[in-house]
Amino acid sequence: MIDRRTVGAGLAALLLLGGCTVGPDFHPPLADLPARWPGSVAAPAQPDAPWWRSFGDPLLDRLEDEARAANLDLRIAEERLVAARIARDAKHADSLPQVGAQLGYSRNRIGTAGLAGVLAPLLGQSPNAADATIPKGYAFDLYQTDISASWAIDLWGKTRREVEAATAGAAQADAATRGARLSVEAAVAQTYWQWRGLVEERRLALREQALGDRTLAIATALQTRGLATGIDVRAADRERRARQDALLTLDADIARTARALTVLVGRNPDTPPLDATDRFAMPMLAAPAPGIPSDLARRRPDILAAEAALHAATAAIGAAQADFYPSLNLSGLFGIDVLNLADFGWDARTTGVGPVLSIPIFAGGRLQRQLSLRRSEERRAALTYQKTVRDAWREVDDALAMVRTLDRRRVLATIDSLAQTQTVAAIEARYRRGDIAAGPLIEAQAAQTAAERALLRQTIAGALARIQLHVALGG
């Protein structure tokens, strides 16, 4: 017979092992990033105000606030985060003792044929199997109540590693939510400035249409006087129809963009949040301030998510290694089982307490393959992290280069627009003095409108490039 003191000493030794945690510990990887971005100067890494406020547009600010509160994609991502945190808390509960209670009643019947010698005394009958009073079956009530407790001792840190992996999974979901929020913010800003640009292009198209109508009227008048041919009139009319077609295309694009923006801010497509009559104001295009490259690993949601995924994969290795070692479960039971409620009491108690030690002996290679799989997943997560960092580096470089290029183009477009405005002013003065006909003035005004359109497009492109830069920098 095994001495209880020997068993107790063995259990104490196993409990001391409860502080052990097998498997590799996670260390945050070092992001391979440059010391500074090319062509940039040192700047604050992350301003206090939301990034889209740098455009200085109150309507955009309102739309962004609406989207953050009601966008459905963002709300779905937030629910995923809630689920990940619940899963983390549920995994932590596995490390705690489990206690349960149950009450039961059953009506039973046991046949006594062949077992009379054993069951008869228990049933209050004669122990003589030949006694005719012994029934062929016996029906009885069984009342049961018990309280049970169990505790899986985390000898090798399996549960701790699982909690660690679940915590990293929650961090990954949090980073994914931040990424979804940044994507929604960027989509709202991009769609808003596209809509603003289209509305302003329509205003310029209406001006061009008015100039075309005036050209057609002049050509028709000249033809009446014999100073122009039908070819001139038909050419002017063809240009007028082309401008009308362009207006129809613009109207369709404006409506489509407005509907897209409506859905982004969480409204139904038939309730647009925009008014095309709002006065247009050019966006403020502040100089880019990318900060230092090392900030990127703390700001970009995809890098944070990749790091969390690597953390979870590393912790999973430890959980898989713990499966190779014995597991210990302590359990206890206290219950009362009676055939008659009148017998319910302390004398009817049933108790049990003790450990259960499970030792893996043969699993057909399953444990080793699971460990190999977890190690492969950890290597893949490490490679994914490296790729994510390099892609982020490239995206920031590309966005910075695009912003600088578009800024130079916008300067050239601004110079050309100012020059065309001055030209129109000079020609208009000559026209008013009667030195020239209306034709040169209309041509100059058309050139001025084209220059304004070019400047508008470069400005909108600059705003979109800055949005892309903010996304590349993580917001």
From TrEMBL:
Name of the protein: Efflux transporter outer membrane subunit
An annotated Gene Ontology molecular function: efflux transmembrane transporter activity
Membrane topology: Lipid-anchor
Family: Belongs to the outer membrane factor (OMF) (TC 1.B.17) family.
Coiled coil: none
GO CC terms in record: plasma membrane
Primary location: membrane
Localization per record: Cell membrane
Pfam families xrefs: OEP (PF02321)
Keyword Glycoprotein appears in the UniProt entry: no
Gene3D superfamilies, alphabetized: Outer membrane efflux proteins (OEP)
Organism whose genome encodes this protein: Sphingomonas sanguinis
Keywords per UniProt: Lipoprotein, Membrane, Palmitate, Transmembrane, Transmembrane beta strand
Signal peptide: none
Record carries keyword Transmembrane: yes
